[in-house]
Amino acid sequence: MSIASDILRGHTDGIILARLCKKDSYGYEINKSIQKITGNTYELKEATLYTAFRRLEEAGYIVSYWGNELTGARRRYYSITDSGREMLRSLRAEWEESKRSIDKLMDESFDTDN
Amino acid sequence: MSIASDILRGHTDGIILARLCKKDSYGYEINKSIQKITGNTYELKEATLYTAFRRLEEAGYIVSYWGNELTGARRRYYSITDSGREMLRSLRAEWEESKRSIDKLMDESFDTDN
DNA sequence: CGATATACCTCGCCTGTCAAGGTATATCAG
DNA sequence: CTGATATACCTTGACAGGCGAGGTATATCG
After folding, report:
1. Which of chain B's ends, N or C, has fewer CB atoms near its CB within 10 Å?
2. Nearest to residue B37, comparing CAs of A101, A56, A44, A57?
């Protein structure tokens, strides 16, 4: 099962930052690791991924540099900044909070008496 | 803390259907109950709510009818259809699945060895 | 030599959110 | 009686993120 793009939206930035918080990486690798971790459930389309990189770099959350591969295609590496780490912290908190809310709202047993 | 609109997106339909699965209701009441349940964390803006009703009704997931209030402003009630109940089942499943994936991806302790 | 994997990128469409604006009824304080 | 607030509905247009479709280049393997 693949996840609707409307659900992906809003998590893209956090997911990328979370990956980069582990280690510097590049587009292709990040994409593969996301697929691997989720067993192909969650997939960022390339266009989505690269627009996200532009957005995050412009916002100062990541910086990029070219790798010096001696063979194969060139890679553009990304590195998370302090400001990016802080953003990530806040996105994780938002995720926990929204998860709780959505769980309540989607739960069939939950009820109000208003 | 309020939740970013990019996270709301993708859950709006499911949340509305979940509310209507309990009982027929109308826009204003649904909105208030969402706020109450989540302690004002999750808030659908009116414009968003009413666009969602149009969308869901056009898709055949809900039907509407005017209430016969003897006093106060008129209310348009919504009722979930069989097709809507089926959609809700599938949205709940998608939520569980995406929650698991995003949890893994946002988790700081999780790692790959690729 | 053609297919496949790695690796990058952009353009333009589509869709859902929402600020801003509007309508109408009822209640309550001053 | 007047103004504020709550209830209750609605539309328009701007905006932003996802992504289909298209493109480039290198390396490997049958």
Report:
1. C
2. A101
Place of tokens 């991806």: B105
Q: Tell me whether A7 touches chain B (CB under 8 Å).
A: yes
Q: Do B1 and A32 touch (CB under 8 A)?
A: no
Distance A96 CA to C26 C1' (A): 41
Chain A CB contacts of B51 under 8 Å are none
Residues of B in contact with A110 (CB under 8 A): 37
Tokens representing residue A48 in the block: 């989505």
Assigned token pair, A92: 């994780």
pLDDT tens-digit readout, B29-56: 999 999 999 998 988 999 999 999 999 9
CATH 1.10.10.10 fits B9-106, yes or no: yes
A30: number of CA atoms within 13 Å, CB side?
30
